[in-house]
Amino acid sequence: MRPAPAGEDWRGLAQRLPRQLRFGVSTWSYPGWEGLVWDGEYDPGTLSKHGLEAYHRHPLLRTVCVDRTFWRPLTAGQYAAYAAQADEDFRFVVKCPASVTDAQVRGDEGKALKSNPDFLDPRLVVEHFVQPTLAGLGAKLGVLVFQLSPLPWGWLGRSGALLGGLGRMLAAVREALPADAPVIVAVEVRDPELLGRTLVDTLKAHGATFCLGLHGKMPPIEAQLPMLRALWPGPLVCRWNLNRIFGPYGYADAQKKHGPFNAIVSEDPHTRAVLARTIHGVTGAGQPAYVTVSNDAEGCAPLSIQKLALAVEAEQEASRRAKASP
C-alpha cells in the first residue's frame, strides 16, 4: 500500500519533536483517511489487514493502539503479521482482552450477563496476552494497557479485594516480561471512584503507570493529572478516545457525526492544550510519552495528531524563549 505524499509535509515538524514522543491512532481501517495517510481508495477490510504498510511511513505516526485485542485474544502469528508491516523504530500499544480485565461477562450489545470468574486472573493474563504479544511483536512492543471496564458496586465497594487482585495480576505480568524489556505497563480505569492513593500505591509497587483515559466516563484531563504527579517520575500513556460533548455513552453519536472521519468536526482545544503541556513536561524530563487518538475525539485522528504536534512544538518554543529571557 502507498502512503499519502501529503504526509511528507510533516517530516520537518516530526524531526523537531522529542524522540521519546510517539503519536498514533486507535485502529486504522478508515477509507476517509485517503490523502492524509494513504494515497488511494481502499476498503476497510484491506486497510485492516494491510494499512500499517502505509500508516507507519507517516512521520508523525510512530505508534498505534491495537484495540481489537480487547474483544478477542490474538495469536502470536497475528501479532507478527502486524509487526512485519512496520519498521524497526515503530512501537505498538496493545490492550489486554476484556476476558481478563472486565469483572462481568457481557453479551453482544455490552449488557452484563454474569460475573466473570477469570477477572484479573494472573495465569490467563500471561498465557492469553503477555506471551503472545512478546512472541509476535518482539522489540516493537511498547505498551501493555490493562483497561478495567466499568465495575459493579460489588467490586467498587471492596477496593481492597479489587486492588489486591490487580496487584497479583500486575506482578505476574512483570514476572513474564524480560527484565531488560522497555515495555510500559499501564492501567486505565473507567470508574472515577478508583482515582486516589490506593491505586497509586498498587501501581508503584508493581512498576506500572496510570493511563490517562480521555472520554465522558472519566473526569477531564486536568482532574486525572494528579495521578501522574503522584507516580512521578514516569512515562505518559494517554488514550484520547471520545469528545466529552457526547457524554459517557456517546460513541455511536460521535461516529454518526464524524464520519467519514476526514475532518475536524468537534474541536476540543482545551483538552489539546492541556495534553500538549503535559507531553512537553513529561518528555522534557526525559520520560517516554505514548499518545493515541481516536476519530471520536475530534472527528479525524490524523488531523488531531497534527494539531497536537504543532501545540507541542509551540510549548517547546515558549520554553526556549523563557529560558533565554534575562
Let me know the average pLDDT: 96
Shape: globular
Number of domains: 1
Q: Compute the gyration radius: what is it?
A: 19 Å
- Counting copies of identical and different chains, the oligomeric state is single chain
Distance between the termini: 52 Å
CATH topology: TIM Barrel
Give the low-pLDDT segments. none
Share of residues in helices: 40-55%
Order of strands, widest sheet: 1-2-3-6-7-8-9-10
Query: What is the percentage of strand-forming residues?
Result: 15-25%
The number of strands is 10
**CATH class descriptor:** Alpha Beta
Major beta sheet summary: 8 strands, parallel, barrel
Mind telling me the CATH superfamily name?
A: Protein of unknown function UPF0759
Q: At CATH's second level, what is the architecture?
A: Alpha-Beta Barrel
Verbal overview:
By secondary structure, the chain is α/β, with parallel strands linked by helices. The chain has a single domain, classed as TIM Barrel. The strands form two sheets. Strands 1-2-3-6-7-8-9-10 form an eight-stranded parallel beta barrel, surrounded by six helices. A two-stranded antiparallel ribbon has the order 4-5. Helix 4 packs parallel to helix 6, helix 8 runs parallel beside helix 9 and helix 12 packs across helix 14. The relative contact order is 0.14. The mean pLDDT is 96. This is Glutamate synthase (NADPH). InterPro entries: DUF72 (IPR002763), UPF0759_sf (IPR036520). Pfam families: DUF72.
